[in-house]
Write a structure and sequence with these properties.
- The protein has one domain (2-58).
- 72% of the residues lie in helices and 0% in strands.
- The protein contains two helices and no strands.
- The chain is elongated, with a radius of gyration of 31 Å.
Length: 78
């Protein structure tokens, strides 16, 4: 029964219209998934920044480590 309904729907609506509806459905699903990922990323970024700010307040101020002197490689030509 369902195959008869599908074929009747295809004849009535046309293959192009069915294709457009499926394409629109996929685009809506992708947009919803993208929005969910963006919201999750924003939440995680906010948590990370908050944690970094707390760690910066709790950590005592240190002087930066001195940078080691660069060695100059000398080539002796005789």
């Amino acid at each position: 029964m369902t195959s008869k309904k599908n074929s009747a729907t295809r004849k009535t609506m046309g293959a192009a219209q069915i294709w457009e509806e499926r394409t629109a459905l996929v685009k809506r699903e992708l947009a919803a998934e993208s929005a969910a990922n963006d919201a999750k990323t924003a939440r995680l970024r906010a948590l990370r920044l908050e944690k970094e700010a707390e760690e910066a307040e709790a950590a005592p101020e240190k002087e930066p480590a001195p940078t080691p002197k660069k060695r100059i490689k000398r080539i002796v030509v005789s």
